[in-house]
Amino acid sequence: MPFFQSGEGALYYEETGTGPSLLFIPPPALGTESFRQQKEVLSERFRVVSFDPIGTGRSPDHGRREYTIEEWTNDILSLADHLDLEKVLLCGYSLGGSPCQEFALSYPERIKGIILLCSFPEVSTVFLSAKIRIGEWLALKDFRTVMGEGIAISHTKRKDKLGSGLFRSLVPITKPAGWVGYYQSPHF
């Protein structure tokens, strides 16, 4: 399995295809599996790369319970450096859009562009806030199966091969306490 070094340790990543590089940045808990369909289609024209952030999927949590957007941004920089990418095109999904935006602001000389999918600059609605609080509670109680099932269904809208793949990637390898750390970051 391919890993790259960043900050306190190694993080898992996947790459496929040839052409211009496109880095997918997932939200907490989803990791590389959330971009399975995009990888299959886009790898014909792009070098498609994704990684599991700290405590997600195959990346260890390195004992961390808190993970800031700045640290996540530095992980993107470490991955770009590891792959010898001078400039990057980033695609952030959901909360994965926050480190993409921070990367563009912090390293403007390294950015080709950003694509934001269902991303948000802050939690400003009652519905999203409630959804995050429920997720935090489930994670803290270590209800991985319930949380994994809910995330898989809510991010695929159906229980199919993609949803099953997401579920398998979330349970049991992702560390639930790490999920909470993303959302309770003082910088989010």
Automatic annotation (TrEMBL):
It comes from the Bacteria. Pfam families: Abhydrolase_1 (PF00561). Residues 29-131 form the AB hydrolase-1 domain. PANTHER family: MONOACYLGLYCEROL LIPASE. This is AB hydrolase-1 domain-containing protein. It comes from Salipaludibacillus keqinensis.
